[in-house]
Amino acid sequence: MRHFRQSGRRTGVTFSLLTALILALVSVTASPGQAADRDRVRAFLTVTGFDVALEAIKLSAEDAPAMLGIRAQDFGLSWTRLAGEVFDVALMQEMGVDILERTLSDAALAHAAGFYASDLGQRLVQAENASHLADRSVKRKSGEEMIADLMVSDPERVAIFDRMMRAIGSAEMTLKSANEVQIRFLMAAAAAGIVELKLDEKGLRALQAESAEESLAEIRKSGLRGAAVTYDGISNEDLAAYAEALEQPLMREVYELMDAVQFEIMANRYEAVAMRLRGLDPGQEL
Fold first, then answer.
1. Lowest mean pLDDT among 4-13, 46-55, 160-169
2. Which residues touch 178 (CB under 8 Å, ≥6 apart)?
3. DSSP for 217-247?
4. What is the pTM of this model?
């Protein structure tokens, strides 16, 4: 579902399973003020592909040591084992279910599930699932080449990508959330004695603010690159229909919540990494 981020092994769900999931999602009358039950949330994750988006958080594990000025390779097998335990896929997905069970309304669930359970929705989910788990360096290089070509050959398609991103506030939300993840991770690492920070939290946030404009521009470029690769097999007409669906108020609500859940889990896992790193690496100045 998070199609502007990170070929995968997921190929969608079978017809019989999809049918069962749809029935589970739409058989209960939507109530705006009622939170979704746990079984329907699990079905929602699968139909929308958000289960794979949460799984993809594990790919960011390699970024954690770099934030502290160290390399994951320096830890050898110890890092591999630690990352596998902290970024456990089943654990992260259960965390997502826990949060959504309390916060996702039936109305929002039914609206989003109704779209993603459609033929177009499932084709989009299949493309997004593969993109979430793709090699990031390969995806970046391919995306750069594709966007450069599209700017000349099909500017309308690039405009649709931009419309999709703006519909869900992708760049702004990503920057805000990424900054929060970084702050929480650095503060947790400092508290654990892994690093010695030269700046306090206020100073770190001021530093982030100074580079906000540049960071937003890079996030937007990254989003366009990712969209070009992810939706390579989807027509402009279908993507325009997707953009229109994303612009609906309930879909915006769902995406805002999905972003919040995804980054909260990421921040939580980074904090857990900071605590675990204490036994693997001596403190150093950052």
1. 4-13
2. 263
3. HHHHHHHHHHHHHHTTTS-HHHHHHHHHHHT
4. 0.81
Asked if the structure places residue 222 within a domain, the reply is yes
Structural domain that includes position 184: 15-285
Classified as helix, coil or strand, 196 is: strand
In a domain, 7, yes or no: no
Amino acid identity of residue 41, one-letter, is V
For residue 60, what pLDDT is reported? 84
Question: What does the pLDDT look like over 64-82, one tens digit per residue?
Answer: 888 887 777 777 678 888 8
Do the domain assignments include residue 84? yes
Would you state the structure tokens that stand for residue 139, as one six-digit string?
């995806």
The whole-number pLDDT of residue 36 equals 61
Cα gap 191→135, rounded to integer Å: 33
Residue 80 confidence (pLDDT): 82
User: Angle at Cα 271 formed by Cα 182 and Cα 222, nearest 5°?
Assistant: 35
In a domain, 4, yes or no: no
